Amino acid sequence: AHPTNYQLRDSANNKQQTTNNKQPMNQLWQQPSIINHTQLLCASFRRWTGRELLSVTGDLEVQAKQLFDAPFMVVSHGVETDPIFNYGNRQALELWELSWWEFTQLPSRKSAEPMLREKRQELLEQVASQGFGTYSGVRISSTGKRFRIKEGLLWNLLDAQSRYCGQAATFSDVEYF
Fold first, then answer.
1. Torsion angle defined by CA atoms of residues 162, 63, 72 and 87, in that order, rounded to the nearest 10 degrees
2. Structure pTM?
């Protein structure tokens, strides 16, 4: 069972917003913090790559829904000393076999097997200095299923004032072992 409330992390301002967890997962994208985070994800992706993360239409809430329901994985983590995931779209939540509430409490390093965490940390540091980069790597779901991410893209999240807000990744090619 989940606690009555959970913490949504606003990585741009490093604030936490308490939200009632009774809202169904298929409506999470309606929350203002997720709508704002969707805009941060898309704007930062465009800034580093010159491309759109998703061809979106409609108002900001519709865009948040489109990213949440996209046919590829999108995840991000914040700026904590031990960064914690603060976003995972539906495809990512299904891949890691976690609810939104479980995923957004998970330190991102725990998505990799212990023996691969050093290599993952090196990649994160490289991207932090360069802005974005490609990667492949083995990750593990909450039930222990191992999978390889192929041709993932990792990028820094920067707000409108160019402040560092964390990192995000997207990928669509996954191979289970």
1. 50
2. 0.82
